[in-house]
Each structure stands twice: as structure tokens, then as C-alpha cells.
Amino acid sequence: MFEVLFEHISKKISLQETEMERLKTFFIPKKYRKKQYMLQQGDVCKYIAFVEKGMLRSYQVDDKGSEHIIQFASEGWWIGDNYSFLTGLPASYDIDILEDAEVLLITQPRMEEMLQAIPSMERYMRLLMQHSLISMQRRIACTLSTQAEERYLGFIAEHPNLGQRVPQHMLASFLGMTPETLSRIRKQLLKKG
Amino acid sequence: MFEVLFEHISKKISLQETEMERLKTFFIPKKYRKKQYMLQQGDVCKYIAFVEKGMLRSYQVDDKGSEHIIQFASEGWWIGDNYSFLTGLPASYDIDILEDAEVLLITQPRMEEMLQAIPSMERYMRLLMQHSLISMQRRIACTLSTQAEERYLGFIAEHPNLGQRVPQHMLASFLGMTPETLSRIRKQLLKKG
DNA sequence: TCCTACCCTTGATCTATATCAATCAAATTT
DNA sequence: AAATTTGATTGATATAGATCAAGGGTAGGA
Fold it and tell me: What is the helix, strand, coil percentage profile of chain A, to 5?
């Protein structure tokens, strides 16, 4: 159950065997079924989740009822509403399950205890946040400077597997376009070769 | 020279007097004049800067020559190309000075030494990254779900001072619209009341 | 095995915003 | 103070992508 997490951590820091054992005790393993909610807008985000298996998404629903996907999270990704988790205030995002999932949950107080108990995890968390920030900045730069087709091509180049696993209309939502537009773009691209 | 930095740090963690003195030794104070570059695309981002005074911006220039502003940084903000700083690879952004500035620079190796010497700074950095990530996610959600006018109103509501200090066409670039569009939006808003 | 979601596609039309172009105003340089 | 650059405004026109609407395929539940 902890394989993916340990692998992910060991790419950023190194932990001793005893620390790894200790680490396990802070997490709550949990399974979710497709279509379940992990978090609903307005509720407090009590847990941040690390995905061992399956796929989740976080998204925001606007006043017209359209969904805007903030993040997909498959194996090896963290997901949660950071702001709500950190502050205890109501979440602005929904999180639900796209493929049956196995996740590792941790609460805010347990996270604090973990960082006390295993100080090098503070570094892991810093690097994690830093990398997420970098990719968010890339996404903004991309949104500001490129057209729909280029955005789509960039996405599938960077996440070839996600392109397969996620329904096309969700991909469109993530990329900031309508499903119709994405469908037409793909048609165009097929014609071109 | 370190007032703003110490205040910013003390909002997230607490440092002892000796640690604060030690901290100073890792930074290089530097003054920049308006229009100077702090970083140019293609160069390696050797320093991350904390702004004590003045204003900077990071931006990307696309193939057509248009600028897309990623971030403004006034007093109390950090700025740099995180990716280049972290990896040592060429930067994708330009950074330049909008108002004469006093900044505190730190290199990657000195940053590592600092985190060793003052472990609680690791926590500060983690929280810093986490907050930046949260605001970037907000910006993406906003870009995906709202029209130009609403985006503008949201921005000036959150950063009333920046609205004054920054030329209008840069604000437009930050918000992902043309200067003409922003000008028309402001005209509309004046009419309304 | 049928039925009902759900998802993708395609066409017709509409609209927010971009682009192009010309002034005008203000600030910076000489 | 004149000259030059830089920024904001406004109008006319173009366009990427949204919206509306309909049809068809496919998978999972009863």
C-alpha cells in the first residue's frame, strides 16, 4: 500500500528504514469507488490524499453549473484543497473519483506531528510544493500565450497516458475549452496526419 | 535592509535573535534601477530575490513578441525562475525592474547551506511555496471560469495598490487580455458607476 | 438483452475578445 | 523647451472559440 509513496519520497529525500516504518503510522489507507466524492465544495478539507492507485480530479463549479478542472491526480500525485486544509476554512473545490482508487490520507494535525517526528519530511514537502508551483506557473504561461490546439498538443505530449485515461470532455475542461472545440481540434489534427 | 524579510518570516515561523543574525549572512543585498534586467530568458537563474523595496515582474515573450506577465513582485514578495534556480537549466522567463528596487539575493548553494544552518527555514520555505501554489491555483480557476471584466474586478479587489503602481497594459498582460480590451472594460465600468 | 446514461461528433450561429490603425496625452530624453 | 518615446483611448473589422441543437455510438445497470 505504501510502495508508490515511498518511491515518490525517495526521489526527493532519503529516509532510514525506521523512519519509513514510523511514517506509515501517520497515514490512513482508504479505498474509493468511482464517482464517489472525496471532498465537496463548502466542506472543510480534512485530508490531503496521496494516490497509490486510481484517478481523482479536483474541480470548481461556476454559477452556470460548468465544471472547471483544476487538477487530475493519478498514481504518485497528491490531491486536496490546500487552502482549506491549511486554514480550516470551507473548500472551494470538489474532489471526486474518476477510477476506483486507493489513497493514503493524512490530517492537518497528523501532518504537523509527522513533520516534527521526521524533520526531513519538511524538505520533501517543500520540494513537492515547489514542483507543483513550477508546473502551475507553466500552465498559466501556456494559457496566456497559446491557442487551444497548441495547448492540447502540449498536454498530450507531457501526459500521454492521461490523454487515454480521462474522458475527452474533462480534458477539454482542464484545458479551458469546450468539449466541442476539443473534438474539432482532434478532427483537424487527424486530417493533417 | 532586512526589515521586510524578517517581518515576512516572522509571520510564518519564529526565529531567535542569533538565527536572525546568522540568516543575514546568506543574502546579498542589491539595488536595481528601473528597466534593468535581473534575469534574461536563456540564462541560468542564479539568484532568487526577496523584494525589500520597489517592484519587479517576471514574464515570458512568445514567438510573436508579445509579453505575458507571470508575476508582479513588490515589497514582501519573492521572485525568480524557480525551475531554472532549482535545476540549473536555462530560464524560460525574463525578470526586470518596474520601479527602482532593493532586493536580497540568495544563490542555490547558499540556500542549501542556510536550510542546514537554520532548519526552521525549511518550514518557512515550505509554507511560502504552499501559499504561492494556492494563489496560482486560484488564478487558474479564475482564468478558466470568468470573463475579462470579472477577472479585472477580482484583481483590483485583491491588489488595490498594484492597480495603481503598474502600467495598465501590464495589468492587461497579467490578466490575459489586450490593453485595448482592458481600456474598454474600464470605460464600461466608469459608465456603470 | 434491452434500456438508459453518458459521451463524442457535427453543423449553424453567435459573441467576447483580438487585431489593425489612428489619435491623443504624458512622461522622459536631448 | 523641443523632440522622442511610451502609454491610453477609440473605432472598424476579424476571428477563435462558445453556444445551441440534433444525432449516433457505446457501455454498464436492471
Answer: 50, 25, 25
> Could you tell me the distance in Å between the CA of residue A55 and the C1' of nucleotide D27?
19
Q: How far apart are the CA of B49 and the nearest CA of chain A, in angstroms?
A: 16
On the 0-12 / 13-18 / 19+ scale of CB atoms within 10 A, B27 is: buried
Task: Residue B21: count other Cβ atoms within 10 Å of its Cβ.
Answer: 11
Contact A145 B82 (CB under 8 A): no
B87 touches chain A (CB under 8 A): no
Tens place of pLDDT for every residue, chain A, 193 residues? Answer: 899 999 999 999 999 999 999 999 999 999 999 999 999 999 999 999 999 999 999 999 988 889 999 999 999 999 999 999 999 999 999 999 999 999 999 999 999 999 999 999 999 999 999 999 999 999 999 999 999 999 999 999 999 989 889 999 999 999 999 999 999 999 999 887 6
Q: Which helix (H) or strand (E) holds B103?
A: strand B94-107
- Other CB atoms within 10 A of residue B73 CB: 22
Q: Which residue of A has its CA nearest to B119?
A: A119
Q: How far does chain A reach from its first CA to its final CA, in angstroms? A: 43
- Cβ atoms of residues A95 and A43 within 8 Å: no
- Interface membership of B40 toward A (CB under 8 Å): no
CA of A62 to C1' of C7 (A): 22
Residues B70, A137: C-beta atoms closer than 8 Å: yes
Calpha distance B171→B183 (Å, rounded)? 11
Question: What pTM value is reported for the model?
Answer: 0.94
Select from A58, A114, A126, A132 the residue whose CB has the most chain B CBs within 10 Å, as the one to mutate to test that interface.
A126
Three-point CA angle B33, B35, B41, nearest 5° = 115
- The C-alpha cell of B152 is what? 479585472
Nucleotides of D under 7 A from a protein CB: 7-12, 16-21
Categorise residue B53: left if φ over 0, alpha if ψ from -120 to 50, beta otherwise: beta
Write out the three cell numbers for A88: 480550516
Q: Is the dihedral of CA B124, B126, B129, B133 positive or negative?
A: negative
